[in-house]
């Protein structure tokens, strides 16, 4: 089974009908047949970005509670790695939620990511491996 990490941008687009990528992301997820993992910081960011409508927030929370998206717990060693990544990408500046995805991906050996964020084209693992964007590039 395909397992991928999912970032907040793709989740927000999926739930927010006004997002410019809503239709494309929704269509993508209708055909996706794998497991999607994310972090609590990503979920927190999604809730904050969907703050304009509590009903939409609750749709997301319902899907998390039914494990449509699996929340991966950050471990102590992840915070050291996030600190290193934060320093490495200090010129961006790096987003904490994104860096949790990088740290979890490294730890679990998952390099596939569903994201609208071009930062995942730049982020590298500790061994300099690249992440593979599963969501098709947009123009």
Short descriptors:
single chain; 139 residues; alpha/beta; Rossmann fold; 5-stranded parallel sheet; 14% strand
Helix-strand layout with pairing:
Blueprint: E1 2-6, H1 8-15, H2 22-31, E2 34-39, H3 40-49, H4 54-65, E3 70-72, H5 76-88, H6 96-108, E4 112-114, E5 132-133
Parallel strand pairs: 1-2, 1-4, 2-3, 4-5
CATH architecture: 3-Layer(aba) Sandwich
- How many H/I helices? 6
User: Would you tell me the structural class of the helices and strands?
Assistant: alpha/beta
Considering DSSP H and I runs of 4 or more, what fraction of the residues is helical?
A: 40-55%
Description of the structure:
The chain has helices spanning 8-15, 22-31, 40-49, 54-65, 76-88, 96-108, and strands at 2-6, 34-39, 70-72, 112-114, 132-133. A five-stranded parallel sheet has the order 3-2-1-4-5. It contains six helices and five strands, in the order βααβααβααββ. The protein is globular. It starts with a strand and ends in a 6-residue tail after the last strand. With 139 residues, the chain is of the alpha/beta class. Helix 1 (8-15) packs across helix 2, helix 3 (40-49) runs antiparallel to helix 6 and helix 5 (76-88) packs across helix 6. The mean pLDDT is 93. It has one domain: 5'-nuclease (Rossmann fold).
